[in-house]
Amino acid sequence: MIRAQVIVRPRASIFDPQGDAVQRAIQHLGVSAVKQAHVGKFIELELDTTDVKATRAQLETICKDLLSNPVIEDYALTLEVGTPTALKKSPLPRKAVKKAKASKVKKGKAAKKTKSTKPKKVVKPSVKTTKSKKARKK
Amino acid sequence: MRWAVIQFPGSNCDQDVLHVLQNVLMQEAAYVWHKATSLNGADAVVLPGGFSYGDYLRCGAIARFSPIMPAVKKAAAQGKTVLGICNGFQILCEAGLLPGILIRNASLHFRCEAIPVRVEHPASRFTRDYLAGQVLRLPIAHGEGHYVADEATLDSLFQHKQVLFTYCDAQGRNTPAANPNGSQRHIAGITNRAGNVLGLMPHPERASEKILGSDDGLGLFTSIFASQGEALARAG
User: Fold this and answer.
1) Strand positions, DSSP E, B16-134
2) How many domains are contained in chain B?
3) What is the CATH number of the domain that holds B202?
4) Chain B closest CA to A18's CA: distance in Å?
5) Are B225 and B1 in contact (CB under 8 A)?
6) ipTM above 0.85?
7) Chain B residue with minimal CA distance to A15?
8) Were both Cys, which of B98, B113, B137, B145 would link to B92 (CB 3.0–4.6 Å)?
9) Which run of H or of E encompasses B146?
10) Closest chain B C-alpha to A80 CA, distance in angstroms
11) CATH topology of domain A2-137
């Protein structure tokens, strides 16, 4: 099967009222270093196919037409092939997470972000997955 | 004149619109279920307010793929009147029948109140029964009415007199305080370039009877069938 993950982000040029409210709430909680917040969507799709090329083409269209609106949003699509059991074992595949982070770092301005992601990568990935699994069970 | 009022799952102003058309304006009007593929020869289509498909994903994002939408697009291309109110406006934007898009109100508040709205151009099929600069009192009820488009689109909308309604104060001035949702350039309602498709956030159907507080919205409907009558006379 293929698991597709889509991250939809508000465009930088468009005012994001939700992100603005979240950023202000975080500041209220005392973390004054947070200067910007962007609220988007995370969409996960499970497909009963292994044809990556065809799936990518189809899903690009779906992302543009339905899942995001190009007037106000950008999207990032990641595909992952595997057996259903293998994909279930890692609810948030490292590849996809890394890719998402990498693209954010590219777009983002602050060098701090890069610093903060680095130590996380060093941490054993197995620990990370078990943590997220536990969190999901709760 | 025959009217079609589209019912999407989650529409909730469909009955108000049909009531005004049938009982106040004595028009021939009928519901059309979103799964239908024909407007049954209607001269005008109304996409009513509500929360089609629960506003999931984005307001109007799923409704635009309803089976009835190709017929709505065809009617728009034929020059028939298409009116989208509130959620209907959001659907028309998502469907690409109108430029731009409506996002979350800048204040994050759901605004439900009667507010002043200024008529920008009376020379349209939707506003001919109003005066230029006339201030109407119309109800709004939305959480996502914040109109956004790029600067070039906004300039073009004003240049081609596609902005029919703007938010204003009681004196008709576009002050920031009088903008209920943060809409760019106070936009409350726009048409397509051809002028036959209108989307607006205020609810004219909720202001069509004096006994219910205001009949300022009635002019929008009467304008449409006055224009239609004229077009028929010209054709005939």
Assistant:
1) 28-33, 44-47, 81-85, 101-103, 111-119
2) 1
3) 3.40.50.880
4) 7
5) yes
6) no
7) B106
8) B98
9) strand B146-148
10) 23
11) Mth169; Chain: A , (3.30.1280)
